[in-house]
Amino acid sequence: MRKLFITTIALLAIILNACSGDSSSSSSSIEETEGVSVTAVVQEYFKDANGVTVSVDEEAGVITITSSTGLPDHKTPYYDVYEKQHELYEDFPTYYVTDGILENFYIDQIADRIFSYDEDGNYIITYAANDNDEIGAIKYVMEIPTNPTEAAIKEETDLAAIGMVLNGVPFFNNYNQSSVPLGGADVSTLDSAGGHPGALADYHYHVGANPGIYADENPEIEYGTLIDENQLVGFMRDGFPLYGQQDQDGEYPDDLDEYGGHFGVTEHFPDGIYHYHASTEDYLDAGWYVLKSGKYYGTPGTFTSN
Ligand SMILES: [Zn+2]
Ligand SMILES: [Zn+2]
Predict the structure, then answer these.
(1) Where exactly are the structural domains of the chain?
(2) Of 107, 126, 188, 209, which is the most exposed, with the fewest CB atoms less than 10 Å away?
(3) How far is the CA of 31 from the centre of ligand 1 (A)?
């Protein structure tokens, strides 16, 4: 009798085990509880040509993305701002300000920013380097979940790298390193790609490239972050992808949540995934569009430099 009792308990334990094993690995609830895997897309689209490598620990559910230099693979004045000799050097953009535009922008300008007038009396602002005038190679390591999920408690994005563009360059939110929103003085140091260096010579983007607004004839897609498209820009630290302003169908989504994202089909995730979109709000009326501000939708992984 006693032996039978023990056997029954053992059997029950096996059944219970089998059940709990089932519920964590089976069928329909997988996407809701575990999230869609981003592994294949991360492996395929980060640019190893620019020194970015990807390694995956499926067991731990972690993808490690290593950017060997963090340097842009496109032209920027910061490659050689004074001598202008580097093969990837190009001038800062020039912004022609017509009447009534940029009110928010030039109110906040600092005195040494370069202004002039064209023959029609319009302001011309030539962007220029400020205190931070050079970029250096920095190795970055970003860890993201293989299957990102919504966080129970949403965290504010960091005042540092909040994600990585496919070329291995970090991107920041719309705050500067003094913890205040970017003003005209900050914005007028951006290059045509929407990037500039920080105090550690750490090149990073705040906004999407939008060379079309400038007088210079700039090639489009070469800047890595051109956002007036449905392109995959990069991945946030929480593992969710960041797209340009448009969805796959070329439409501007009208159902974005307070984190700037929504669940839907993309070119790279045909079964749908939660993804962010770059902002469509003209930042400071300066013609720039912030890549991502506010809180993370998921739980951010680590982003370290050395
Ligand atoms: Zn910055
Ligand atoms: Zn979308």
Answers:
(1) 71-136+155-301
(2) 107
(3) 36
